[in-house]
Each structure stands twice: as structure tokens, then as C-alpha cells.
Amino acid sequence: MSRRPIGLFAQLVVALMGVQALVAVVLVIATRHQIQRFQVEQTAAELDRLAPLVAEQCEPRLAPSERATLQSQVDRLARSSETRISIVGETGQVLADSAHDPALLDDHRFRPEIDAAFAAGVGRAERFSATLDREMIYVARRVNADPLVVVRLARPRADIGTSLAPLYRNIGLAALLLFLLTLAVTFVVSRRLSRTVDRLARDATRFARGELAHRASAPGTRELGQLAGALNDMARALDGQINQLQSQRAEQRAILESMSNGMLAIDDRQRILSANRAAERMLGFETAVARHRLLQEVIREPALNTFIDAALATAGRRQEELVLEGRAARVNIVSGPLLDADDHRVGLLMLLEDVTQLRRLETMRSDFAANVSHELRTPITNIKGYVETLEDVGTTDRDQTNRFLRIVHDNANRLEAIIEDLLSLARLEQDDARDELPLEEVRLIETIEAALRPTAARRAAKSIDVAVEADETLRVVAVPRLLEQALGNLISNAVNYSPAGTTVTIRCARDNDDVRLEVADQGPGIARAHLPRLFERFYRVDHARSRALGGTGLGLAIVKHIALVHGGRAEVESTVGKGSTFRIVLPAGVGAGVTRT
């Protein structure tokens, strides 16, 4: 188990307390030593001053006959000065001593202080006294009398310590007070410093969390203030760099998301790294959910997986058009290596283009060209054939000639109708591209009545009734001519495909924000498989019957385009054996759904 690190405040206090305690101890010891040394010197000096006085008092009593008087004098002087006094002869014999019986003392000639006094006149020593069993301070002075003697004065060293005990106590108390005062100052300064450092640490933590607008501060300390300023400068620089990176990333993401083509990036293990919306839409997944998952888990398209395996196996560019079975789409894929900063391949980058609509349009164009060629070739062939027949047989048989001319005329009319419908489609597409239409407010009941007139004779011939279910006040904004043409095409188809004696129903009603125009018949109906392509050019359910009825194959395509240029749509519902309902849905309201003028 790791130990919790010690805080800065605790480290500062402990370290400074240790230093202060050590300084205090050293100071007290040094002071005590100096005081003791000074006191020893003072004691020695005092003894040195007393020595001549004692010598003067004792010199008259140095004669052997005066020894008893000498001892009394020494005792008296020792008591008055609180000093041990010894008189030592030149031979080392102790003549008198205030502490012991001189007769019992050994030879003192070679005591350091006595030896020095005999030699130089004065001697000093600090040593242990075997006689008194303690440390003593000795001062000896030679007395040049007859006989030659040395007067030695001594005081216990311990007496100095006893006399200095109050001073030592006061020094200790002063040192303790100074230590406590210093400790308090250290505590305050350390607390202030540690709090400033803690504040800077919290500021740095906020910067690390991304709060780069925050500003650090460290008042009262120059160095920490400089550190706070450096942190703020770093935060501002980081904030600017991050904002720049975010802006660049947003721009790049906006570009990717705005692309109509898809972008998909995977790593070498085929895990999804990134994709734009177009790729998500084409392949049917969400990057937020699929990121870092295997592509095969997210997109189950064998053709795509095969392509990726082959692309990862090669180092260069690869292109292929795939059919996505699960999406019923065709996609053109271009792949290349995904490189890191050191130009090492780390995955695969793919650009996807949805060519489903393009291929469908190409198919429609091909079918359209083939259908136009076929539709035009049939009447032209008929016209050419009958004209050649007339040239061969001549005009002697008037009935036959008239019949041939009627056939030529009918085929010419059919050819004209096809060309006219093609031109109508071209004009509608051109108007839609220019975004300009001469819109007017139209009463729908009037449009219905106008669209019914061209089919009156055919309806009468087949005994077909018309039922109109419409609000006579209902109006839309449209081009009257185009709306009448679209409705007329639907009515014409309904009459053509309705059995004799049935009813064609025309409905017109408001449905929320739309207006619906419906033409329903009771004809044979249309199989569901044909409904998605029913509004394509030249698409026929029954080719033979359509031509027999005189249709060009473009009527419903024209209906669809007329609805589109008005901002609407064309719809169909049909049940085989029951009939069909064709519907034009237009936006309700003036100008709704279109922005043309």
C-alpha cells in the first residue's frame, strides 16, 4: 500500500522546525560554553588578585616556628574568601592547607600550577583534584621569601555552574520563547505559501479540465506570481490553439458532412474510424454507434467486404462499382491507403458515390431512346409503306386509295401527337428549370368542366357516365392551361380503359395543406408490379391495347411533370379487376409549394 505524500505545508513546517530547534540547541550550548569560559576566566582573575593579598598575609608566618599560626591564618583567609588556600614549599611539602591536614597530603611539587609558579612566578590550571575528588580551578603565585614558597588558591568548578544556573534557566526560556515565536512566524509564512501553491495547483487542475478561460493568481509572492502569469499565458495559448483546431475540425467536418459522396475510414483491422452522413445514409449505419466496431458487424454486404479485403491486400488505389444487395443500390467506390504522420499505412480511406439514380437515369435514357425510336418508326414505316403501295398500284381504285390515305393520315396524326407530347415534356422541364410559371388563381370546377369537353363524344359512344364530387368554391394557384391538360389526360385514359356503361368519378377536395384531384375508373386495373414505373415516358402496361386506343405513351409522364412544376406530385392506386384511381396532389394556398412568379 503506497504512502500518502506529505503536503508542502507539513514539509515546510517540519523542516523549518528542525532547523530552528537545531539552531536553538547549538546557540544555547555555545552560549553556555562561552559564559562558563568567561566565568572561569573571571574566577581565575579573581584568584589571581587574591593571591598577592594572601601571600602578603602569610609571608610573616612562613618560619617553621610559625606553622600553627600560618595554618590558622590560612583557614581564616579561606573562610572569608570562600577559597581553598594551600602553601607549598620548594620541596613540594604542603605547609598549610585550608581543606585538609597538611601532614596527610602528598608531595605537590609537580602539580602543574605549582610547577609553573616556581618556574615563572605564576601558574594556572583547571583539573580534577584527587584530594577533593572534583574539578577545580587553580591559581598559584610564587612568594620570594625565605624560605621560597608558592601560595595556591582554588575554587570548585561546580560552584560556577551553580552560580550560573539562574542565568542558564533564563537563557533557556529566552531560547524557547524565540523558538516558539519563530515557529509561529514559520507556521504563518508556510501556511500562506502552501495555500498559494495549493491555489496554483487547483488553477492548473482547472486548466487541465479544459477551463482555459479561468485565470490563476498568486498575490503577495513575486516568484509564484510569475508562475501564475506563466500558467495564464499557457492557458491563453492553449485556448487559442484549441479554438483554432476546433474551428479547423468543424470546417473539415462541415465539408465532409456537406459532401454528396460518402467518406468511410477504417483501420487495418477493419474497424470503423470515421464516416460522414452520406456514407451512413448509403450503407445504413450510425458512426456514433459503430465507431471502433468491426465493419462486418455493422454492414453486412458481401460485395463491400470482398472489396475491402482486396483493397487492404494491395498498396495502391482501387476502384469498383458494387451492387449493395441489402440497400438495393449501386455504389462506385474508390479506395486508397490511410496514412499517419510518418506516411505509414494505418488503414483504408474510401470515397463512395451513389450511382443508383445515375444508372437508373441511364437506363431510362436508353429505354427512352429505344422507345422514341420505336414509337416514331412505327408510324413512319406505316406511312412509307402505304405511300410506296400507292405508288405501285396507282390511284385507279378510289376506295382503296382513300383507305390508304386515311391510314397515312392517322399515322401522321399519331406522329404529330408523339412529337407534340415530347415538346410538351421538354417545355415543362424547361419551365421547371427556369423556375418561372404564369400562375393564376383557378376555380377547380371550371378546370374539370373544360377537361371533360374533349372526351364528350367518346363518353357518349361508350355510354360512360361522369360523377363529379367537388366543392365549387375550391381554388388553387396554378397555370390553367397545364392543369387542364393534366386533368384532361387522366380523364381521357379513364374513358379509354373503362368498359361501356361504367362511371368515371372525378373528385376534388381539400386535405389539410393539400388539394387533391382524383380521376377514378372501373376499368381492368393495373398490376402492382407496373405501378412504380407507370409515370415514365413510353411505359405501357399493354402495348397493343395502348396503340389501338391511340395513346402516345407520354400522357402520364406529362401529368407527373405538370404536378411537379406546381410543387405537387402524381399518385396512382389500382386493384386488378376493380379499377384505378389517378391523383394529382397540389399545395393549397396562394403560391404554396412554389416560388415562381
Note down, in words, how this protein is organized.
A hairpin with a 4-residue loop joins strand 6 and strand 7. The two termini are 82 Å apart. The protein is built from 16 helices and 17 strands. Helix 1 runs antiparallel to helix 4, helix 4 runs parallel beside helix 5 and helix 10 runs antiparallel to helix 11. It is of the alpha+beta class. Strands 2-1-5-4-3 form a five-stranded antiparallel β-sheet, sandwiched between helices. It has four domains: 155 residues, Beta-Lactamase, CATH 3.30.450; 96 residues, PAS domain (Beta-Lactamase, 2-Layer Sandwich), CATH 3.30.450.20; 80 residues, Signal transduction histidine kinase, dimerisation/phosphotransfer (DHp) domain (Helix Hairpins, Orthogonal Bundle); 153 residues, Histidine kinase-like ATPase, C-terminal domain (Heat Shock Protein 90). 53% of the residues lie in helices and 20% in strands.
The structural class is: alpha+beta
The CATH class of the largest domain is identified as: Alpha Beta
3D shape: rod-shaped
Low-confidence stretches: 590-597
Percent range of helical residues: 40-55%
Q: Summed up, what is this model?
A:
With 597 residues, this protein is α+β, with helices and mostly antiparallel strands. It is built from 16 helices and 17 strands. Helix 1 packs antiparallel against helix 4 and helix 11 (398-434) runs parallel beside helix 16.
